[in-house]
Design goal:
DUF1462, four-stranded mixed sheet, alpha+beta, single chain, 106 residues, globular, Glutaredoxin
Length: 106
């Protein structure tokens, strides 16, 4: 069973370019049951990082992703798995599940 650390970076306010997209927290909440249901043989650990408020105890990876969001290189919500970029902005289920199938189904 693969152990996958899923991190969702986000903020309370929806990103400007993500009109009509789910909020960061909504994305975090629907992602958990979705991944557990679609990929039951994997063990997921989920973390939500508020890019505006959760600034303590961040890893270098976390700080780099937050900096790239703040520099408008990436959008939030942003999803990483085991510190690898998966998707950002408007999150699509197919892209997330394809990443897992490609990287963790060996």
């Amino acid at each position: 069973m693969a152990k996958i650390s899923v991190v969702v970076y986000g903020a309370d306010v929806a990103c400007a370019s993500c009109v009509n997209a789910p909020t960061s927290k909504d994305t975090y909440q629907w992602l958990q049951p979705l991944l557990k249901r679609k990929l039951p043989k994997h063990h997921f650990e989920f973390t939500y990082i508020d890019i505006e408020n959760d600034t303590d105890n961040l890893t270098d990876h976390d700080e780099q992703f937050i900096e790239r969001i703040n520099d408008d290189e990436l959008f939030y919500p942003l999803i990483t798995m085991n510190d690898e970029y998966v998707a950002d902005g408007y999150i699509q289920t197919r892209r997330v599940t394809r990443f897992i199938e490609t990287h963790f189904n060996h």
